[in-house]
Amino acid sequence: MSANLSIQSIKSKTATELYVTATPEQNVPMQKQAEDIFCAIRDTLAAQGARILQEKIFVDRTAAQDVSSIRAKTYGDISDAVRPSFLVAKEGGCDRLAGVQVHAIVTENKPEVILLDGTPHGRLIRTPACTWLTLSGVSAPQLAEATEQAQAVLEKGESALKKFGADFLSVARTWMWLCDILAWYGQFNKVRNRFFTQRGLIGQGTRQSMPASTGIGLCVANGSKCAMDLTAVLEPANAIEFFQALGKQECALEYGSAFSRASRAISPAGRTVFVSGTASIDAEGATTHAGDAQGQIRATIENVRAVLRDTQMSDENVVQAMAYCKTREVEEIFREFRRSLAWPCVTVICDICRPDLLFEMEITAAKQITSA
Fold this sequence. Notes:
alpha+beta, CATH 3.30.1330.40, 6-stranded mixed sheet, 6 helices, 18 strands, about 35% strand
């Protein structure tokens, strides 16, 4: 079977969370890679009676439609109507299909499907520990301007939360998928900063409650200039801790980006730490190791590990990781580092939010509890 599969899990008395990371074997035709990956995920979920909460698929544009068709045919009835996020990377990587990440759950209740504009875009699961909500691929391709799309995407996410009596203060993690990120990242930040200020997530006299986040130069398959995935904890109250400055880095808001370095949330089977997209940036917000991919990769991993330590997590708690590389050459350099990392990781080629950044990583770590 031409798939590399990592299955991480945390368990409580009432739920099991599964984190599945699948990457293809090298030198295998893409169709065979996709078939084997989705067969392996299907069999893993079916064997445990697990249901998907959130799924991301990383491909290049030429493979997106074929991979979507293979997924639908292979999954069969283990899948509901919610489409995964198909994230389109730059062409030129080693594989047209870079990998798949799935977060799934085993519990008595089935996830409820969430509709946005009549289309399934997310899931809600109610467990004794918490009420957990995910959205995937929220976009507004009908709008012409990137900033208009960004505003609409945030408002759509808010409307889904409001259906369940919640708002953006319940959001632990966002992923902002930004086509041509280097052309308009500053404008995107202005839109997000204004939105978060108006909603009371940031501002003088408020508790800074910005979600952990990744803003990265990947496009969704429908060609939108901006799209969003998110994870929220609707109940219990105060289920999320937001960390503005952690490890070796200060608050990102100091240089205009409205996100927390990490968040820690109650999850159906334990506690989850979301480490935001992290790069080779110092305490003053300046890029370090300019032009040195090896130096940036090393500094990024050190920064991520510092955040894990400050949130009482370690390498052994990492359940999923993403590595974003600016070029194929950077990807090849990262492969040397990856051999020493035990983190289940998918690697893609894409632009980072600054021209001088060559590499970025994000991490999800989790610990189980026994009291739920």
